[in-house]
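Lab notes, practical 5.
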Amino acid sequence: MVARWWDGAELWIIGLPFLPQVAIVALIVVPLCFVLARWLDAVGSAVYYRVLRRGAHRAGETGPQLGDGAAEARNGEH
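Output from the prediction step:
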């Protein structure tokens, strides 16, 4: 059902003249991709920090805290 809908939407966009295609991409597709990228970044960061904490916990360390990177950036350390 989703594939059929996508095929119809794709054919509709392809059938449009160039300027409406550009407008649809600029107004809908680009912001949608931006939101999706931000969401994927947040999910990836959460998973990454959870895995780091688990690995540090096994090694007997406290592990990185979410605010550590910001404190280091303010101090000029990288």
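Observations recorded by the TA: The mean pLDDT is 82. The first helix runs from residue 2 to 15.
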